[in-house]
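Milestone M4 deliverable, item 7.
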Amino acid sequence: MKQNRIEEHPILDVPKLDLISFYFNGERLQAQRAEMISSALIANGINVFGHHHKDGSAQGIFCANGQCAKCTVIANGVAVKSCMTAVQENMIVESAEGLPKVPELSEKQEFEPIEEISCEVLIIGGGPAGLSAAAELGEHRVDVLLIDDKNKLGGKLVLQTHKFFGSEEDSRAGTRGHHIGQILADNLAKYDTVHTWLNSTALFVFSDQKVGILKDGIYKLVSPKRILNAAGAREKFLRFPGNHLARIYGAGAFQTLVNRDLVRPTKRLFVIGGGNVGLIAAYHALQAGIDVVGLAEAMPSCGGYKVHADKLRRLGVPIYTSHSILCANGEEMVESVTITEIDHKFKAIPGTEKSFECDTILIAVGLDSLNEFTMEAEQAGLPVDSAGDALEIAEASSAMFNGKIAGLKLAKALRGDQVPDIPSWWFQKAEVLKAHPGAIKEYQNFSQNGGVMPIIHCLQEIPCNPCTTVCPTNSIQTEDGSLFAVPLYKGKCIGCGKCLLICPGLAITLVDYRKDPDNPTVSIAYEIMNKKIRVGDTRTLMDIEANPLGEFTVQSVTDYKNKKMQIVKFLVPKNIANKVAGFVVQDSSISQALVEPIIPKRTPDESMVCLCERVTVGEVRSLIRMGISDMNQIKAITRAGMGPCGAKTCEVLIREILREEGIAPTDVVPNTKRPLFIEVPLGTFPNGGIK
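Output delivered:
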């Protein structure tokens, strides 16, 4: 069977395959050694991992983060989450058809005692916030235990191949996310008071102020003096007919497959959500050699950075603003998607439906903070702080900086006057880094038509300044000198191109009149090199709004292998030189709508609100209209929230329905949380593990 693996990537190094054998439903397959079962199955073209015991619907991956249970399989006789379980040589994997059988225990068992340790600070989460906090605590020789449920530190940074925004000084702007993750992780090695546990999941903060942790399948207890919750966030889901189909992914799951595991899970992708997460995921898809059919955003404009949206449009990906998903279509798996224009009240406008052939839908409609550990610690009376997305949803550059603040705050609480006060400018910088995009400005006016100069297509106020730091002539400055401002060209350019190579949004071109004042050379940064651009090729050049400027011939292509980029040059008439922002790489035929839109046979109330227990929107809505606003009562009647995920997905959707029905949030009786963060075999707890 041909493997669906990425054999060439413009940014990531593709390692040599180290294949092992395993079995799925009796068929012998190959997997990359130590990869997750889910990735191995998808690499072998298997997207349906089993069928639900209630209605027989297909089950597959959604979050790839251990938060849901859609990817459950039976591995060597035990039900496991395939996204969190590594494949082993000759492992017997079976699809979960209906309810998994409880495995039989051997007659004789010996148990080891539970290991208990103590530390000054327990950091839950090894992403940008947790790593930054740990380094700050290490500087002040605080005894730290940092745990993460993955086999590598870095959190979501591991999945990010794009260059980061923010400040070069404070958040390594201009450096690719996966490199930043490695830098932060490697930095911890110099602190002998900072200890890390990988493959370790926090389960609960108990009333005796001990934290239960599952480390490599063995249960341990940790007694910290303080906790820092840097566990991140989980992705939100959406209600629409067909939302139960296989091959509907969260953005994190998609990026895990393509950027961590180098598995190509789809040929034709449609993205729902125009925040930074959705825009970046669509760009990552192009880098992985995947066709991006389109992107729909409910608001009149994308909520992510304009440079991300502009970049996608000019590469050939259409963005449908004021549009939302109407339904996903298919039998077991996604075969097409239907979107519709919506009004200012987010209601579908009849007659505006459009359907597109695709095999995967990516949902990127926001995140919810993982606040469980914060709440549990507060109830136990254990001092707790939060950082990163567990504190507030923002960009990773912000998470790194507020993690640094949290680390120094904890060090100060534990070491007193030995630790300096947090500088006031740190808090000011933190506010800037988490700020939402600001005003959109006009292009800078140029009268120059000689020499060489950068054209800056970054017109939106966002926290980003690497172009100002690399210019050797100090010719690029933000308009008011701050981080959160539009950069302007003020000086004398020497044509070095450093600003092109560092710009995270690929939003700078270089116009050079020195050889031919009437037909200057335009230099464009390019980093999807697996879509080859060669000298002599003809390409359609685009302005910032993806309006075509004409077809022109590639004059030169220069590789910057250490930057994983190319500079592509075109000769163009001087009247359009300053307008050129990029060129098309994806053919428009990929994004053509079907001749006749597919209108859903099911109503929106037939959409699933609880995928674990197969509870529909209509079932929940009918209870609310009967006067029930107690989340626990809704759970008791429908079982919504009783499934394996522990209400991590459906609670948010149920609260949305309550709001739609006019129930104020203050009138909703909150759901009683399940004691444990994730499902754990009961045999894990009595003594720490089977000997």
